[in-house]
Amino acid sequence: MENKKMLQDETMANVSGGFIFADSKGQFCIIDETGNVLELFQSMDEALAYCEQNGISNQQISWEQVVKLREAASKKRHEDDPYYPPNINPLIPPYHK
Length: 97
What we know:
Elements: H1 9-14, E1 19-22, E2 28-31, E3 37-41, H2 44-54, H3 63-80
Antiparallel strand pairs: 1-2, 2-3
């Protein structure tokens, strides 16, 4: 590879997806792929610098997109949980023969 550096394993571990969301209080939230807030900043410049330093995407998203990320993550969690059928109390595991 010409003039390209390979990323070290520890650097690769820090590279992740993410988004920037400007909330109604004027804060800039770094959002992960499940819709959780990772960090809060008072300016877009600070948020962009954080993204660059941590290998996070600086794509901006809307509140509706944050909600969709959270709904998709919730659905995925429930699909992966064998004890979460919607019509059964999740505190009581279903009977298995």
